[in-house]
Structures are given as C-alpha cells and as structure tokens.
Amino acid sequence: MQTKNNLHTTLKKINEVIIDQKQELIQTIKVEKSIKYPNLIQSNSQELSNWRERLVNVYAEAILLKKEESIVLLNNWGRETADLLIVIQFPLDLAIEEIKFYRDVIGDIIKDQAKADTLSLDEFYELLSSFDHVVDHAIHLISVFYMKKYSTNIQSAKNAVDELSVPIVNVSEKIGVLPLIGDLDTQRAQILMDVALTKSAECAYEYLIIDLSGVPVIDTMVANQIFKVLDALQLLGVETKLSGIRPEIAQTMISLGLDFKETKSFSSLHLALKFIGFEQKNLV
C-alpha cells in the first residue's frame, strides 16, 4: 500500500497524462459528434472547442483536489458552461453525453497509472470512485444551471412579449391610448400598472384612455387590478377614461362592488376621444 505522499504522486501523474492527451481526447469526441450532428457542430465549432478544452482541464484539476475543493471548482465551471451552452443553443442532452464520454477514457488513464504504480485494489477503487463523483456532480450541476438559465431566458422573453402587448399610443401631446387585446391575467394586469404609470409620467399625459374592446373577459383579480391602476393614475394627475367595456366585463366590475363613478366610461374609443375634445382633424 502506498503512503499518502506516494498516492499524491500518482494523482499528479494522472493529471499530467490527462493534460498531455487533452487534444487527442478533444479530437476523439469532436470527430464522433461531427459525424452524428454535422450542422450543429460546424456552426459552433470554436465555442465547442473552447468548452471541451475547459472541461478536460477541469477534470484534470479535480483529480488533484479534495472533494470539497472539487465541488467549488465544478460550481464555477457549471455556471460558466450553462451560460455558454444556452448562448450557442447547444442541447443539454448532447452536453451531458460529452461530459459522460470522459468517464471511461479518463477512467482508463486512472487504471493504467494505478497498475504502473502498483496501487492496491482499495486505492484504485478510491481514485476511480472519486473521479466518478466528479463526473456525476458535473452532470448534476450542468443540468441544474442549464435549466435555470433556460427558464430565466424563457421568462424574460415572455415578459418582453407581455410588455409589447400593453402598448400606449400617443394620439396627441397630452393624450395617450392604451388598447388592450386578448385575455388579461394577473401578471399582464401588473404589467398594465407598470406601463401605464411609467409612460404617463414620462409623457406628462393629461388624459389616458384604457380601451378594453379587445378583451373578451376579465376575472375578479384583474378587475381589481384595473381599479388600482385608475387610482394610481389619479394620484399622478392623469384623468383616465375607459372605453369599449363589454357587457360581461361591466357585470364583473359591478359584482365586485368596484366604484367607477369617478371614471367616465364609453362604449367606444371614438366617443371617449370626442368627449375629451380630440377632434378628427388632429389626425391630419
């Protein structure tokens, strides 16, 4: 059985072999994936080469580290890798395949060096188990960070679409119209609040018309949110009008007991504009 110092020497040798064979290892997986996924690989060849080199370096470095230190190393690598893979649109399942690929090839390097240094069975098992843990943890981390990043991007895209679905149109210097189309859920109603207040303050509106003619139905939570928007706009000094309220929407608002007496409502946007003195000739 080797001493602790001798075992460290073996680990150092394994580290050096991995570094020496790095380009060969990378080329092996590169050729395999290029054959299976030619279009995907070619379009991201440089980014993938950098990622593969970084992965092999991480494996080589982790060989020399204690378990706690290797976890810190892998955490940092996982975050960086997830960001890169999302940017180049590299599928998670293919990334996991590549991470797993090195389990066997580096496992063979560990086995050969263990034989050369006449390690005991227990020592060999310890080294191999330690590396297996590194690979398993790498797969776990990349899966977690990839999905978090992916979900964040999806949510950001959804928020951007939601914001675009709550546009404010300047019809004159002091008048804005907020036409709403489609279903209003609680999240979109909150965006309505944010956009209405921000845009009204930026443009110094005197009037804002919220047109609901394109909204088929509003639930009680959303109706209450609209009421809060009207209150907030009033605090900003913006006179708000509602237009295009459908009968079923009116019933929902009444059933809630919401008091819209201070907010004038109209059956159409045209009538609301006419009421506040906006003439058709202003459009010319």
Verbal overview:
The protein is an alpha/beta fold and 284 residues long. It is built from eleven helices and five strands. The protein folds into two domains: 162 residues, Globin-like (Orthogonal Bundle), CATH 1.10.490; 108 residues, STAS domain (Transcription Regulator spoIIAA), CATH 3.30.750.24. A five-stranded mixed β-sheet has the order 1-2-3-4-5. Helix 1 runs antiparallel to helix 4 and helix 1 crosses helix 6. The chain is rod-shaped and about 95 Å long. The N and C termini lie far apart (94 Å). Keywords: Phosphoprotein. InterPro entries: Bact_StressResp_Reg, STAS_dom, STAS_dom_sf.
Notable characteristics:
STAS domain-containing protein; 5 strands; Transcription Regulator spoIIAA; 284 residues; Bact_StressResp_Reg; Globin-like; 8% strand; alpha/beta
Summarize, please.
This protein has about 280 residues and is an alpha/beta fold. The chain has eleven helices and five strands.
- The secondary structure category is alpha/beta
Query: Can you give the helix content as a percent range?
Result: over 70%
Which percent range describes the beta-strand content? 5-15%
Whole-number count of domains: 2
CATH topology heading of the largest domain: Globin-like
| Name of the CATH homologous superfamily of the largest domain | Globins
Proper CATH architecture of the largest domain: Orthogonal Bundle
What is the terminal separation in angstroms? 94 Å
Q: What is the residue-averaged pLDDT?
A: 84
Unreliable sequence segments? none
Q: Characterize the biggest β-sheet.
A: 5 strands, mixed
| C-alpha geometry | rod-shaped
**Which CATH top level class of the largest domain fits?**
Mainly Alpha
Total beta-strand segments: 5
- Series of H and E elements: HHHHHHHEEHEHEHEH
